[in-house]
Amino acid sequence: xxxxxxxxxxxxxxxxxxxxxxxxxxxxxxxxxxxxxxxxxxxxxxxxxxxxxxxxxxxxxxxxxxxxxxxxxxxxxxxxxxxxxxxxxxxxxxxxxxxxxxxxxxxxxxxxxxxxxxxxxxxxxxxxxxxxxxxxxxxxxxxxxxxxxxxxxxxxxxxxxxxxxxxxxxxxxxxxxxxxxxxxxxxxxxxxxxxxxxxxxxxxxxxxxxxxxxxxxxxxxxxxxxxxxxxxxxxxxxxxxxxxxxxxxxxxxxxxxxxxxxxxxxxxxxxxxxxxxxxxxxxxxxxxxxxxxxxxxxxxxxxxxxxxxxxxxxxxxxxxxxxxxxxxxxxxxxxxxxxxxxxxxxxxxxxxxxxxxxxxxxxxxxxxxxxxxxxxxxxxxxxxxxxxxxxxxxxxxxxxxxxxxxxxxxxxxxxxxxxxxxxxxxxxxxxxxxxxxxxxxxxxxxxxxxxxxxxxxxxxxxxxxxxxxxxxxxxxxxxxxxxxxx
Length: 486
What we know:
Blueprint: E1 6-14, H1 18-29, E2 34-38, H2 44-49, H3 51-67, H4 83-93, H5 100-109, E3 112-115, E4 117-120, E5 125-129, E6 135-146, E7 150-152, H6 160-163, H7 168-173, E8 180-184, H8 188-199, E9 203-208, H9 219-231, E10 235-238, E11 242-248, E12 251-256, E13 261-264, E14 266-269, E15 273-275, E16 309-311, H10 322-341, H11 357-360, E17 364-366, E18 372-376, H12 379-385, E19 390-395, H13 400-405, E20 412-418, E21 423-430, H14 438-446, H15 451-454, H16 467-481
């Protein structure tokens, strides 16, 4: 420490969400003094307004849906959910929006915490505006890691502030179910929140600009989710946008691009994410504020000379997922420690200092009814990039383990196989209970396991994982006939 208001550390991390915490944990474990700066709650978006509370809302909805399809349980699952109990559980999972436990963990890990808004103040320097209005200056000997995440991107709609719309934050922390909810969007937040609030008794209307749900995933996945939402009573409207919107007398009134009008109690805009980089001092190191930060595979910001500035997690737009951000944090922490010790980096494919999974094997689960899980390439991405793949599909309803879930099980599995290397490069599953299939697909892709070896990974009977055997059999039969899907 150099003075009362200027303090020197080996590493300064801005942002104490899961990503920032993991960067700090790795650098501290490597023996580097580390301070983390946070202006809101330690634990970040995931702990209080995203992963944890949203899954607490969704779990009862999915369990009831599963139970309602099992003979002998259906009558018991027919009644409404206890909304108060579900919301109380959600509150517990969000730690009642208190970060005391997370702060205690930082202490036990030996990581210093500085409350306040952190901004770059030149190379390796950070100025923190504290809650009492003061300023603390931090100097980093080796690295500054920007882990500021993303926030909801709202449309440019006249009168938006007066509309008081929900974003993902309000949608996961609302104190009670609204009677009527309009959801604008077709992606993960839109479909998950439609699933959760509809199960709690809300009348949901979902408005999508495009022609299907979950447009970044295989088309069959969004189709199955749409069918189930409609079957549960949601109103899905495709090919529409919001032309005007206003809040009048406690109600939201909107006009759509097709001329129709709707009224609801709340409106949720789930229309994408924007980086939190508008006020973090990027201009002081020659970078334009407000945009996504481009990094190489070591998570080093490519436009900042000197290998001292890192952008980790959502803020670099490589993969906007908590688990992927934590993966990046482990890579970044190892890179920072190696550079601080003068150790040469190993940046080859699947090496300790390269985030290869960000481009080859990003797993994602959408906790809708039915669940959707995917990793690696989709057919859409393969066509867009000109990647040649063999497409193998199988109806999950033909797997004995799936029929244990539901005699009328509806679901589908797809794997993409590189025809030259004969390894799996992509997998998508849609159906009840398929989330647990995803890690095996992720291991197959990251391990680059040849199809011939996968035959020896025997799935237990009767489980849904038996679909792996059925996919391999289908591929064998297609390949022996020279049959290759587009």
